[in-house]
Amino acid sequence: MSKHHFITIQQAIAQGEGEASLRGWVYRERESNKFKFIVLRDGTNIIQTVVKKEEVSEQIWNDAVKLQVEASIIVKGVLKRDERAPTGVELNVRELTVVGTSDQFPITKDQSIEFLADNRHLWLRSRQMNAMLKIRATAFRAFREYFDKHDFIEYHSPMFQATQAEGGSSLFSVKYFNTQVYLSQTWQLYAEPAIQSYEKIYTIAPCFRAEKSVTSRHLTELWMAEMEVAWAEFTDIQNYGEGVVKHIVKSVLEHNALDLQTLGRDAAKLRPTVDKPFPRMTYTDVLKLLKEKFDMDIEWGKDLRTIEEDKLSSLFDLPVIVTEYPAVVKAFYMKEVPGHPEVVQGCDFIGPEGYGELIGGSERETDIEVLKKKLIAQGEDPENYQYYLDTRRYGSVPHGGFGMGMERIISWICGFETIKDAIPFPRTPARWTP
Ligand code: 4AD
Ligand code: MG
Q1: Are strands 356-363 and 340-351 parallel, antiparallel or unpaired?
Q2: How far away, in angstroms, is 144 Cα from ligand 1 center?
Q3: What is the end-to-end Cα distance of the chain in Å, rounded?
Q4: For 403, which of 24, 201, 227, 339 is 20 to 30 Å away at the CA?
Q5: 29 C-beta closer than 6 A to ligand 1
Q6: Which residue among 186, 325, 411 is best mutated to probe the pocket of ligand 1, counting the most ligand atoms within 8 A of its Cβ?
Q7: Confidence band for 294, pLDDT divided at 50, 70 and 90
Q8: What is the pLDDT of residues 52-86, one digit of tens each?
Q9: Largest alpha-carbon pair distance within the chain?
Q10: pTM surpassing 0.85?
Q11: Does 341 sit behind a cis peptide bond, omega within 30 degrees of 0 on the bond before it?
Q12: For ligand 1, is residue 218 a contact (CB within 6 Å)?
């Protein structure tokens, strides 16, 4: 075979004519006695190719006829626009090399969700998963871009941690030589010490939550994008959160239009998030709104459940920032509202279309006595948090931050029914393989 200069399938579709060399995997194939049609896929798109018995060597024809779904091949041929082809262009094959054969690829049409989950390593090649992987990469890149632009630096916290941060019930414990430690629920208690070295930091890292309930929103291993910033107040935290969500959605709309289309996701549904300011309202006002619109009675002091978050989100076409939650439903580190210790300066970003909490954040409590009191109330020994309390002993400053569940954001952007589709190999209480 002659020397190749490969182009991607997407480039070939754009080119639409002339010679091209492509490489990829057999997505679909069918044949007659004179023609073999191979729909080829690569990371960028699919294209129909045709091998004509009369026009190729006997060897190429014999190889082509034997090809099965997911074999990897190299083809060279001539492009031609053709409305009947799935992506509007067809390649008339002149040369073909089989790189890796495939024998009865297990995934065929109409298989159960369970079967696809068991074969996740193969299902990743599907058009849907391919689109997700690209959108996911855009979201990660956009998060970093946004904070790099605002002079933050990337910072890394340990995954083995000696204490809890978000409540003991969702901790995974790990045998650590002769003692027991926990997998990180959040970077936060290791981020707060670092902002006294460099004021503006972010990370994207795995987090672990032993949430027993199987829902469409919960994973046991998720990627959390977090930021922490010194000399900042509650509204600054909300502004950063709104800014980065807008930037992520805008980037996906710019770079992944084709992928959204592959997923059947209406991009217009994402537009308001980019174009309009996010509504902001207190927890107390949310209760009033739910009473007024849906006649729902929620006792003040109860956390918002899925059903309440969903009703709230149904009133808007973009994320809503809910602020000033009752202290009793939030983590120990959130700052009390001055003069109103029963509420804290914590916020949740509730995504539209019933995707639930995308971001949780707060200004941080700086009063060391309040922190100790709250730790004790949760059954914790403040002794174990001395390193953390030192941040308040030596040059404490107003500060805060948030954490964003990457899979929550991706699931919403993609319009998925379950968060499991937003990560390559999901981990849930019922699933830890492949
Ligand atoms: O609200 P959370 O628990 O906040 C924290 O961990 C803070 N320490 C973050 C911070 O201020 N630095 O978690 C943050 C986000 C949630 O809003 C949600 O999007 C996501 O992480 N999240 C989950 N996503 C999927 N599965 C789970 N089990 C999740 N738990 C939290
Ligand atoms: Mg939360």
Answers
A1: antiparallel
A2: 18
A3: 38
A4: 339
A5: no
A6: 186
A7: very high
A8: 999 999 999 999 999 999 999 999 999 999 999 99
A9: 86
A10: yes
A11: no
A12: yes
Q: Is the CB of 224 under 6 A from ligand 1?
A: yes
In this structure, which ligand is nearest to the CA of 172?
A: 1
Distance from Cα 359 to the centre of ligand 1, integer Å: 7
What pLDDT is recorded for position 110?
84
Query: Quick check: CB of 334 below 6 Å from ligand 1?
Result: no
Tell me which amino acid residue 184 is: S
Q: Half-sphere exposure (CA, 13 Å, Cβ side) for 320?
A: 24
- List, for residues 208-236, the tens digit of each pLDDT value: 999 888 899 999 999 999 999 999 999 99
Using DSSP, state whether 269 is helix, strand or coil: helix
Ligand nearest to the CA of 330: 2
User: 129: which 2 tokens?
Assistant: 């998963």
Q: What percent of the chain has pLDDT over 90?
A: 97
Taking 60 as the threshold, does the pLDDT of residue 2 lie above it?
no
Please indicate whether residue 357, judged by its CB atom, sits closer than 6 Å to ligand 1.
yes
The pair of three-digit structure tokens given for residue 421, joined into one six-digit string? 């589709």
Question: Ligand 1: does its nearest atom lie under 6 Å from the Cβ of 351?
Answer: no
Is residue 313's pLDDT more than 60? yes
Tokens describing residue 364: 């941080």
